[in-house]
Amino acid sequence: MPCTYADLHQQRDRLVAGLAALGLCKGQRIGILTDGGYEPILAFLAADRAGLTAVPLCHKSSTEILVHNISQSAVVCLIVDDKGLEQYRLIRPALSQSPQIIRTEGTEGEGTGWAELVAGGGNGTTSQVQVSAEDESKILYTSGSSGLPKGVVQTHGNIVANVRSVWDKISPAEDFRFFKSAPDYHAMGILNIYYPLAKGWTLDLARSPDRVLADIRLSEPDGFLTVPLVLDKVFANVRKEIDAGGFKGRLVDRAVRARSKLSRNQGGVVDHLVDKTVGGRVVGAIKDQLSKRVGSQLSLLVVGSAKADPDALAFFQDVLGIHAFEGYGVTECAPLIAANHLEGCKVGTVGRPLFDIRLVREDGVEVARAEVDRDDYRTEEGAVGELWVSGPNVMRGYLGDAEQTARVLVEDPEEAGRLWYRTGDLFSMDAEGFLTFR
């Protein structure tokens, strides 16, 4: 169902007023236990406006984890859909304090219905709440190597810093359709909401996680966030035809090689001839097959969550003409740390840092440093170290866990008040600043 920015603005304000009518005030937290949809986005925006903290929860979590996350975050109300309400009923006896329940549209049961909540807000008029960049915006629960999840406290400043870091580096387009494919309880899912909306783009939503593939076809987006597996599957089908040999295999191989060379300005006369004739038709047929899955407008893929196959990335960029930008981030950095983009891309790396970083050896010796505002990259050739990051993207800390926070947030010995987040991941950095997993 289409929604204009004017509609979104009005509905957000009415929700803010409805939450105030329920008695919620600045500094309190609201949980979101849904399977995606439109209401969580409204809830995020309304929470920002009202000075509330949104706590998106994974509907696939175990009973033990849900009890922990809801109890530790002390949410005063919980937004649920049918699945979320069913889960809440299971864990309610284990909760020391039960939050108010708000049901999404079409969900039946106890609590306050969405229409009732919004109606309670009248015309959406409320007193202005002052919110600063340092205030809590989200608490995102991230699983650790052991024990219960840790609650990452993200500020408004963290999210804004992420949006600004890639403002025109992903696409400078003003008219752009971006499909939301990441879940709300992931840091990338949060950015998947705020970045397109800040740009004024069209943001398309899947009806539910199990309908993502079907809804992408309906959306025909210009871009979306994806995992490497999607690229791998498309590339594997092409490799399968090439590896099968025979006339068709040789033809596909020659067509792909010609287009790849030409895109890198390395092609010769024969490559031009192949691409202008049968090779172009072969590549066109590959694009047609992809279009049946994602539509014909796709020009951008943002790739994350795991290391991508460089050959698959190169195939999408050089042969299909689709920007496939791989990046790197963690929940504690809201989440971006580095990314390939329009201003610099090197396949096989996770791109240049978007914020200041250090690479530190196990013995504490710094082997590389990047200061992004100065475009300054210093590194020992071939050196590998743990990546540390410092900047407005770094979380405030882990909720109620000063010990774990102190382990990962380290104060700069030379600059008082400056903190570095230790990612625990090993990288190397080349002279141009591109980072590579090790």
Strand content of the residues, in percent? 15-25%
By CATH, the architecture of the largest domain is named 3-Layer(aba) Sandwich
> What's the domain count?
3
Number of strands: 22
Q: What class would the helix/strand composition place it in? A: alpha/beta
Tell me the name of the CATH class of the largest domain. Alpha Beta
Question: What's the number of helices?
Answer: 14
Task: Indicate the low-confidence ranges by residue numbers.
Answer: none
| Helical residues, percent | 25-40%
Report mean pLDDT, rounded to a whole number. 94
Radius of gyration: 24 Å
User: Order of strands across the biggest sheet?
Assistant: 9-8-10-11-12-13-14
CATH fold topology of the largest domain: Rossmann fold
Rough outline? globular
Distance between the termini: 45 Å
Largest pleated sheet? 7 strands, mixed
Q: Describe it for me?
A:
37% of the residues lie in helices and 23% in strands. By secondary structure, the protein is α/β, with parallel strands linked by helices. It folds into three domains: 1-131, 3-Layer(aba) Sandwich (Rossmann fold); 228-320, no CATH class; 326-437, Luciferase, domain 3. The chain is globular. The mean pLDDT is 94.
